UniProtKB/TrEMBL annotation:
GO BP terms, alphabetized: lysine biosynthetic process via diaminopimelate
Protein's UniProt name: Succinyldiaminopimelate transaminase
Cited NCBIfam families: DapC_gpp
Gene3D superfamilies: Aspartate Aminotransferase, domain 1, Type I PLP-dependent aspartate aminotransferase-like (Major domain)
Native source organism of the sequence: Guyparkeria halophila
SUPFAM superfamilies the record matches: PLP-dependent transferases
Domain Aminotransferase class I/classII large: 30-386
Keyword Transferase: yes
The protein's required cofactors: pyridoxal 5'-phosphate
Amino acid sequence: MNPDLDRLHPYPFEKLAELKAGAEPPVDRKHIPLSIGEPRHAPPAIVLDTLREALPQIARYPATKGEPALREAMAGWLTRRFRLGDGLLDPETNVLPVAGTREALFAIAQAVVDRDTGDQPPVVLMPNPFYQIYEGAALLAGAEPYYYPTLPGNGFLPDFDAIPETIWQRAQLLYVCSPGNPSGAVIDAPRYRDLLARARRHDVVVAADECYSEIYFDEHEPPTGLLEVAGERGGETPFENVIVFHSLSKRSNLPGLRSGLVAGDAALLKRFLRYRTYQGCALPLPTQLASITAWNDEDHVRANRGFYREKFDAVLDILEPVAGIDVRRPDAGFYLWAGVNGDERDFARRLFVEQNVTVLPGRFLSREADGVNPGAGFVRMALVAELDDCVEAAERIRAMLY
């Protein structure tokens, strides 16, 4: 067996199950899970219609690179959404379909990291708290994870200047998540420019997880994307050492479709395509055709944002005045990253036992680094359920704390 498998940590939901073991919630209250970020809104009907009509295409082998029409739809959406210049993003070289971004976020480390670095292992940098796939990808690529904190004093944004020069010198890959999971903080253009300048000096690939970019509250201020900042450079290789990840799971309420995209550095994607061809993760043709419909339609995405906006308004009205929990509207995304008094694990277990509501303790999403665990004292609440359930959960939290 690969010895690096023994380096993997238990997944957050394994820890959550252990925390809840033996607990008996009230039987007269239905369970309301706020722990898992699985969209619960209805998938768009136009996508389901396309999927049904395309089912006979399941008889054909799909290409790993995807159908040209799919890459064109993806490149078109990225160009419109991030205001890229005409022709800046080539569907032939700058875009690839992936079977959901989870597998691609893992696979990119296996393709990028060079283990043969001498006495010290290569470094993969990642935010802390973080999506645990980043850490697992680094460990199984033979790299050393470096956890850069995203703390409340800095608006839950990363401070790339605080990363030691010795770490930058060993770094090969940096994961960044914006809007952030779990905080919802959005990295702005100046901070992205500084990151790109530093990464290029050290020849570090920047992998931007932007899966929550289409859930935001002001229709006139969508979150900044790394591609639009990288594209400012112009020239023949504006996306050098840059790769971004987008998904239909959150944007279009299609988590079970397992469809997303990677885009950016053409030279990197050429080699990544070779890796993925051997990995065997081509999207079935019905999935590709349904994805074309989804990427080409914005009406369902705007409606989806409206549902989340309504839920955040209602939940914040209930919880903001409550002592014992500190909540704020995030910049984007569908999580509330709520501060609580005391050990957040005790809060989560008590909430389950007394109110049959499940939230995720923050330290299950983070690691202690330099004596600080940035997840301690926080719980993550995913407002993915229907409005009535989110309101009911907020009222139960309020009842527990009064």
